[in-house]
Amino acid sequence: MSSKVYSTGSRTKDHQPSGAECLPLPEANAEAIDFLSSLHEEELQMLFFSETLAMVSDTGEPQGELTIEVQRGKYQEKLGMLTYCLFVHASSRGFLDKMLCGNSLLGYLSEKLELMEQHSQDFIKFLILPMERKMSLLKQDDQLAVTRSIKEGEQNLGFQTIQVDHQQAEVFIVEQTVHSEEGIPMSCQYYLLSDGHLAKRIQVGSPGCCIITKMPILREEDEIEPRPVFEKKPLVWEEDMELYSKFLDRKEELRLGHASYLRQHPEAHALISDFLLFLLLRQPEDVVTFAAEFFGPFDPWRPSSPALGSSHRPNPFRSLEPEGDVRSGAA
Question: How many CB atoms sit inside 10 A of residue 79's CB?
Answer without folding.
Answer: 6
